Amino acid sequence: EGSKLLTELLSDISTNIDVLTTSKSAHDCFFSPHHVTSSVCQDYFLFIGRLCRSSKGMRMLDKSGIFQVLLNLVVSTNHDCYVKLVVSSLDYTTDAMPRVILSKVLTASTVSSRLYATQFLLVLLRAKLPDFQKWGVELLVNQLYDQSKAVSLVAIAILEEATEEKVLCPSLTVNCHRGEGTMSVTRCH
C-alpha cells in the first residue's frame, strides 16, 4: 500500500513539474515561483532529493520519470528558484541521473544557472563528497572555459581551494596533462 501511494505521489509531482515547462506562465502553476519560495511546495524537491539517497528511491524516481522532467525544467526555465531547488536538493553520491542534471545546469544557457551550479560544486568539495575528485574536478575544469568571466573566476577559486585537499591533486594533475588547469596544479607540487 505504501509503495502504491508513493508511486501516485511521484506521478503527481512529476506531472506538476512538467506543467512548468509546457505552461505559458509558470506563475499559474502549482509549483509557481511564488509557491516554491513561500510555501511547503519546495519540500517536494527536498523529498525527491531524499529519495535519491537510496537505491530503491532512485528506482522509483527513474520509473516515475521525475529525473527527465527535472532535467527539462532546469535547462528550459528562466526562473532561478527552480534551478537552485533542483541542484541543491539532489544527492550526488552515486554516478546517476542527478550528476547528469548538474552537468546540464553547468552548461545551461543562463549565466545565473551556470554560476549557481559552479558555486554549488564548492559545497560538494567542502562536504568531501565521495569520489568528487573523479567527476567534480573535471566539471570544474570545464567551467574554466565558460563564456562568462564570472563563472570562470569562480571555477578558478574553487580549484585553488581544491588544491589544498591533497586527495584532489592527482585529479588536477591529470587535467593538467590534458592542457587544462595549470594554475591550480602548480600549487599541488
Question: Please, could you describe this protein's structure?
Answer:
This is Rapamycin-insensitive companion of mTOR middle domain-containing protein. One of its GO terms (cellular component) is TORC2 complex. Residues 1-127 form the Rapamycin-insensitive companion of mTOR middle domain. InterPro entries: Pianissimo_fam, Rictor_IV, RICTOR_M. The chain has 189 residues and is mainly α. The chain has two domains: 1-91, no CATH class; 110-189, no CATH class. The protein contains twelve helices and no strands. Helix 8 packs antiparallel against helix 9 (132-143), helix 8 (111-126) packs parallel to helix 10 and helix 9 packs antiparallel against helix 10 (149-163). The mean pLDDT is 85.
Compact summary:
The chain has 189 residues and is mostly helical. It has helices at residues 2-22, 33-38, 42-51, 55-64, 66-76, 80-89, 97-106, 111-126, 132-143, 149-163, 169-177, 182-186.
Percentage of residues in helical conformation: over 70%
Mean pLDDT: 85
| Helix and strand element order | HHHHHHHHHHHH
Taking pLDDT < 50 over at least 5 consecutive residues as the criterion, the unreliable ranges are: none
Residue share in β-strands: under 5%
User: How many strands, which pairing sense, and closed or not: the largest β-sheet?
Assistant: none
Structural class: mainly alpha
Query: How many discrete domains?
Result: 2
How many beta-strand elements?
A: 0
Bulk shape: globular
Amino- and carboxy-terminal Cα gap: 58 Å
Task: Tell me the Rg in angstroms.
Answer: 18 Å
Please, how many helices? 12
